[in-house]
Design a protein that fits this description.
The chain is of the alpha+beta class and 268 residues long. Helix content is 39%, strand content 22%. The strands form two sheets. It has a seven-stranded mixed sheet with strand order 1-2-3-4-5-6-7, with helices on both faces. The structure holds adenosine-2'-monophosphate and calcium ion.
């Protein structure tokens, strides 16, 4: 398959589709908080919302770009190898979603021969659609965004996540958290990696670091950070952050300093 010619148009369509599916997700969250689905049980219900949202996204994106492949969290479609692949998380921040918190998002990236060329992260509750295309600037609801200009770690607000698996490294991870808490304005933990990333892209945070994440959590958001002028690497400073399960994204002004601190606590 060829690379799509009009990425701008494609991106607008992806934002439109994620807004549509976002409305569905919000309605389902409201039903959940109304407890009108009590008998189904919380986990069943959430599985249903995640899967139903993904099914909607897949069918719309398939129609938008016939022949494209998919890599999705809920595996509702065959995970196809193709030159053009959509990498999708229908709800990033599922735990927040279950508990009635507003911080969750739809994350959609499009990769051409393994390289991201389009990213959309839609923060559903605030209707904030973050997007970027190859060769273009990062946008929030149609307005250009960029990473923050703060250059001192001591003036910075950071964000991270805590591991769900790999508990063997939890102690070291928490020591790193304490160290960075002392060196910065603070370290937040929002519970949606895609939102953490786009908040770096628009300058709300100076940096985000986490490990153990999957491609659908980070592909779109990391690309948006890069297009907003930021820097994303793995903990060796290399480019293996989508599949490598280690990610540091920042405004670029203190990435090296942060990477040093991470490695002090968290070297393999
Ligand atoms: P998810 O909500 O799509 O699962 C929070 O730090 C990040 O970790 C979120 O992006 C979340 O994505 C991800 N994550 C990975 N495994 C998880 C799990 N078992 N439970 C909750 N969040 C998980
Ligand atoms: Ca998810």
């Amino acid at each position: 398959m060829e690379k799509p010619v009009d990425l701008q148009h494609l991106c607008e369509e992806v934002c439109r589709i994620s807004r549509e599916v976002g409305k569905f997700i919000l309605l389902e969250q409201k039903r959940l908080s109304d407890q009108s689905i009590e008998s189904k049980g919380l986990n069943d219900f959430v599985t249903y919302v995640d899967k139903a949202a993904e099914t909607l996204l897949v069918s719309e994106l398939q129609a938008l770009l016939p022949g494209s492949g998919f890599l999705t969290e809920e595996k509702t479609v065959a995970q196809q190898e193709a030159e053009l692949v959509w990498i999708i998380d229908p709800i990033d921040g599922t735990t927040n979603f279950i508990h009635g918190l507003p911080l969750f998002s739809i994350s959609i990236a499009l990769a051409f021969r393994g390289k991201t060329i389009l990213g959309v992260v839609h923060e559903v509750s605030r209707d904030e659609c973050f997007s970027a295309i190859e060769g273009g600037r990062a946008m929030l609801n149609g307005k250009v965004i960029q990473v923050s200009e703060r250059s001192k770690l001591s003036d910075s607000l950071l964000v991270t996540g805590f591991p769900y698996k790999d508990e063997g490294r939890l102690e070291a991870w928490m020591q790193l958290f304490i160290t960075l808490l002392r060196k910065s304005h603070g370290v937040r933990r929002l519970g949606s990696a895609a939102i953490d990333l786009v908040y770096v892209a628009c300058g709300r945070f100076e940096a985000f670091y986490e490990y153990g994440l999957s491609p659908w959590d980070v592909a779109a958001g990391a690309f948006i950070v890069e297009q907003a002028g930021g820097l994303v690497t793995d903990y060796q400073g290399g480019p293996n952050f989508v599949y490598g399960k280690e990610l540091l994204a920042g405004n670029g002004r203190m990435n090296e300093e942060l990477r040093g601190v991470i490695l002090e606590h968290f070297a393999r």
